[in-house]
Amino acid sequence: MAESATEKTATLPGKCRLCGSPLRVLFSSKLPVAVSSACFPVFRPTLIMQCTTCNLYQKTDETLVADYLNYQVFDNDPAADKLIFKTGKPHQTRSQLVADLVVSQLGGNREGRVLEIGCQRGAFLTALKAAAPNFKLHGFDLDPSYKSIIEPICGPNTYCCGELADVVGPFDACVLIHTFEHIPNPGQVLDTIHRLLVPGGLLVIVVPDLLASPLDFYVIDHTCHFVAPVLERTLLRSRFVGRPDTTIISNEQIAMARSVEKAELPSTPLEPCDAPILSLLHRLECCLQKLPKGPSLVFGTAVIGVLISGVLGDDCIGFIDESPFQAGKKFLGHTIRSTDGLRGERVILGVAESLAPVVGQRLRALGAEVVNPWELAGV
Ligand SMILES: [Zn+2]
User: What CATH number corresponds to the domain at position 202?
Assistant: First the structure.
């Protein structure tokens, strides 16, 4: 699989989807499987390119698998609402948190116009409506059927699909929550948003933070993968000024940028930051290739869990998840189990390395035979 992926690079056009410069191969996965952003296995090895000029990590159109036609049927869509916990504060959904940021940036509940691009079924627009009822809200997405969901929230003629450039502005703010990383032509879309905004308008972008979560490379429908300095310069190219914040939501970055009339890219080169990302991925792949044969349950239904199930094939006999709202759901042909009745079962931990020892200890206490893949590196 790895050879065929590498061979394919010879025929790739190799132009950056942001700046048009030549690309180089950064990471060619040896796993036969990747993951869709709705957490389904896709049997295609991941191939990541990096722009030799602007440094953007990206997939080419040939290595990308994006199928959004049935996107709304997935009930475990990770882009749906994540709960954000902060010590000493009541928890919020991601939508509520971003809504509060937008209200505060726009100076409170006034008559501002806000467009969400990639609004899906309106989780964020609902939260923003609750936080600032005076705002005039609009939604844009690819699926015409969302009109019947968005207009009851935002009012008549507030949902658009088709061409973003045809949306009628101007807006005081545009918001993209886990949308920007799916866009095949990020520079053009940012230029369009610039035209849709009032001068000094607000652009809010929430995307995965690749440095905190290198497994983002395996998400096969993410066209681009961002570290904060590259995201900041990507925005600057289209005349948006703002520094992404990686501290507000774990594993994610939020850029709150303002449109300006003129902006100049700094001439200083960006510091390379691939080494820790590649080191983690190579170690993970080495470990997954050493997984034991035979029937196993997989603990975790996020990216690592799905990769493990893809590597196991028919040896994956089911999934376990501790969160009460996951147990009992169907996932990849299995019903997700709770941690009950694990005595004597082999469980492979599909969780981050930092969590694996704690989870493993809990499951061993329940009588399970636990495999921590992260410990297989030196085996
Ligand atoms: Zn580039």
Answer: 3.40.50.150
275 CA → ligand 1 middle, Å? 19
Predicted confidence (pLDDT) per residue in 32-83, tens digit:
999 998 888 999 999 999 999 999 999 998 888 876 654 443 343 444 577 7
Q: Answer yes or no: are the C-beta atoms of 205 and 180 closer than 8 Å.
A: yes
Residue 246 Cα to ligand 1 midpoint, Å, equals 22
- Domain-terminating residue out of 259, 281, 307: 259
CA of 185 to the centre of ligand 1 (A): 11
* In a shared domain, residues 151 and 218: yes
97 within 8 A of 249, measured Cβ to Cβ: yes
Gap from CA of 52 to ligand 1 centroid (Å): 7
The span from the CA of 348 to the CA of 314, in Å, is 14
Reduced to 3 states, what is the DSSP secondary structure of residue 35? strand
DSSP string, 94-109: HHHHHHHHHHHHTTSS
**For 78-125, how does the pLDDT look when each residue is reduced to its tens digit (9 = 90+)?**
445 777 777 777 788 999 999 999 999 999 988 899 999 999 999 999
Mean pLDDT taken over the chain: 90
Residue 139 Cα to ligand 1 middle (Å): 29
Report the b/e string of 12-39 with b at 16+ CB within 10 A. eebebbbbeeebeebbbbbbbbbbbbbb
How many whole angstroms from 123 Cα to the centroid of ligand 1?
Answer: 33
Is-cis flag, bond preceding 170, omega within 30? yes
Same structural domain, 59 and 77: no
Q: Which domain holds residue 130?
A: 73-259
Tell me the residue type at 265: L
Does a structural domain hold residue 268?
A: no
pLDDT at residue 377, as a whole number: 82
C-beta of residue 256 within 8 angstroms of C-beta of residue 241: no
Of 237, 259, 281, which residue constitutes the final position of a domain? 259
- What is the C-alpha separation between 115 and 192, in angstroms, rounded? 13
Instruction: State the Cα–Cα distance between residues 155 and 206, nearest whole angstrom.
Output: 25
Do residues 316 and 179 both lie within one domain?
no
Q: Are residues 137 and 197 in the same domain?
A: yes
